[in-house]
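The data layer described in this paper is built around a simple, fixed record for each protein. We quote a single record here, exactly as it is kept in our systems:
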Amino acid sequence: MSAFFRRRAADFKAWWHRPPTARDRVLGAFVGALAGLWVAVLGRLFLGDMPVAFSVLAEFAMIGAGSGVVLGAAFPKIVLILGFPFASLGASS
């Protein structure tokens, strides 16, 4: 079992030190869009005044998704690591 974790850590270290590829940037933009959408909508719901109109939530969702796309394309590896839990929020098993 220890060899498995050592190999995974070495793979992660190698991936982290490689320059981002186009695949990393596309995946980072996709994950960033989903994560930004959830963070913006849930942040507005939890931190803003209630009740809130659906149009306001839609605006926040679009702003969050757009910001996530830009951040995901610029910093794909960081967004993949930090945004993946938020991006998988709406996924059902």
Q: What stands out?
A: Residues 20-87 form one domain. The mean pLDDT is 91. The radius of gyration is 16 Å.
